[in-house]
Amino acid sequence: MKRLLVMAIAAIALTACSSTGNPEFRAIDYGPGIQPIPGSITYGGKTRARYANMPAGYTFSHEFYGSFGSRVEERYRVLNDGSLDIYSRRITPINVSGGR
């Protein structure tokens, strides 16, 4: 009985470690497939018409505060069809200890 309990706990612990987690906990993200988080321009979709007049390949940055109070900077690239792609994200924690 103890062996079964230990094996069940180990299985639960190992499956919990393989989850992808919240993308807002990663400090720096680069590359394709970065998922938007609340505050991202692409969060919720519907950005194609707004940025369709920008030239393909145009890049710009967007800064906002994440849900945990961290400063988030994202770099976007305009694709050929006018949609946006997040190609980098940097999350900087806010220092609340007085700055020293």
Would you give an account of this structure?
This is Transmembrane protein. It comes from Aliirhizobium smilacinae. Residues 1-18 form the signal peptide. Keywords: Signal. There is one protein chain. The protein contains 2 helices and 4 strands. It has helices spanning 2-17, 48-51; strands at residues 28-30, 59-65, 71-78, 84-92. A hairpin with a 5-residue loop joins strand 2 (59-65) and strand 3. The mean pLDDT is 78. The termini are far apart. A 4-stranded antiparallel beta sheet has the order 1-4-3-2, with no helix packed on it. It has one domain. With 100 residues, the protein is an alpha+beta fold.
Write a brief caption for the model.
The chain is α+β, with helices and mostly antiparallel strands. It contains 2 helices and 4 strands, in the order H-E-H-E-E-E.
Task: Summarize the SSE layout with pairings.
Layout: H1 2-17, E1 28-30, H2 48-51, E2 59-65, E3 71-78, E4 84-92
Antiparallel strand pairs: 1-4, 2-3, 3-4
| Count of domain modules | 1
Largest sheet: 4 strands, antiparallel
**Helix count?**
2
Average pLDDT works out at: 78
Strand content: 25-35%
How are the strands of the largest sheet arranged? 1-4-3-2
Signal peptide: 1-18
Keywords: Signal
Protein name: Transmembrane protein
